[in-house]
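Handout for the seminar on molecular recognition.
Each group receives one record of this type.
Step one: identify the two inputs.
Step two: read the structure output and locate the region that could contact nicotinamide-adenine-dinucleotide.
Step three: write two sentences on what you found, then compare them with the reference statements printed after the record.
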Amino acid sequence: ESKGAAKDPGSEPTLGMDPFADTLRRLREAFSAGRTRPAEFRAAQLRGLGRFLQEHKQLLQEALAQDLHKAAFETDISELIMCQNEVDLALKNLPTWMKDEPVAKNLLTQMGSAFIRKEPFGLALIISPWNYPVNLTLVPLVGALAAGNCVVLKPSEISKSTEKVLAEVLPQYLDQSCFAVVLGGPQETGRLLEHKFDYIFFTGSPRVGRIIMSAAAKHLTPVTLELGGKNPCYVDDDCDPQTVANCVTWFRYFNTGQTCVAPDYVLCSPDTQERLLPTLQSAITHFYGEDPRSSPSLGRIINQKHFQRLRGLLGCGRVAIGGQSDESERYIAPTVLVDVEETEPVMQEEISGPILPFVNVRSLDEAIDFINRREKPLALYAFSNNKQVVNQILDRTSSGSFGGNEGFIYPTLTSLPLGGVGNSGMGRYHGKFSFDTFSHHRACLLSHPGLEKLNEIRYPPYTNSKEQL
Ligand code: NAD
């Protein structure tokens, strides 16, 4: 497969030539001609996307099973259903979202009409990662199409099977004069980013986020950066260990821990740690059996590089649960590490794997200090039977999103924005937030030409009588 190729027949790249130029020119021409602006065109694209999801459900499940060994149930709830819900919501609300939004007026503009027009930016680029390769490519696409943009998708080259389906099958369901999938890794994406886009929506690591933002800065292109980081999970002494264990086990080991909003580490007292360990062990056994390796519900690590990285982290602290690994399958058992020090490698980087370190704190204040000393996370979780404890964490910290006695299920709510803050990103999407993200909010004031007499009050000369008004 030729890297960097836009999936456009007849535009295979020649060495040294710009492989993207023809595709981008075609999309720009379509946008300039106003092709993507009519509501009916946008709706047709969304319906096409919906058909793609329905007709190729099995193909997508198979691709995700090949890439991540993802169970079909996990694929359905975290990828396909979420995309379909976004398509349905956008189709239902498109006419309302597209409407000009009237705003308040002052005395001087009373006779005119003041409103916000949501207009498409133009050519949008969406770059996505490998861990939820359908969701994180198509959910932003819904927003970009609904808002009337032409779109270039650059899926991750690491989730190869899904990349192939997106490149070869998806375009058949969309108008190819306005939409393209391009392929490539860091080098090709670097070349792609030399081009001017009108909006860049990136999901991935903070490291690459910086590269994207510098490339965007050259053209003053606005960006949304959906990044990652280490998500703390505070567990209070006043908690129900079984509930916490079920919830934490599910959302730490879902997709084999390769989830940007998963809890990355637990903060709790040494006593609570001791109470939680047996319940975590029983939840893991209940979910994945005595031998998690043979469980159809547990996936595998995406590639050798990440497997080696994760295996290196197993040496931190002390293994309390799990710890087994098998390189030939890229298998890592659901693992809990205890007695972990803040300075150890597992506490320096986002884990993105089935490893859960425990860091001990002696009080709520110490936990809050710990959280606030570090970069602002994408998600923050607090478990307590005491509402005040949950509220204290909420009030005294900052994060992209917050879950109180709740796991990562909140991204399924299209009414809540998904996005980071600080090192975990900027901007937000999902539901109407996606439409707004991909729309320029144009300030419009239309005055009546017949009322020019009234305007004289603002023109020079600024006589005393005008000042007294
Ligand atoms: P990544 O940053 O390595 O890659 C993301 C995308 O950027 C891929 O399409 C890749 O091809 C491209 N890319 C990689 N290097 C590049 C370079 N030098 N120049 C230009 N483009 C480049 O991320 P990943 O490993 O695919 O995904 C894991 C990261 O994504 C984690 O940090 C995770 O937290 C984050 N993530 C965030 C969210 C969110 O919603 N905020 C969701 C999922 C994953």
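Reference statements: The longest helix spans residues 72-98. The first strand starts at residue 101 and ends at 102.
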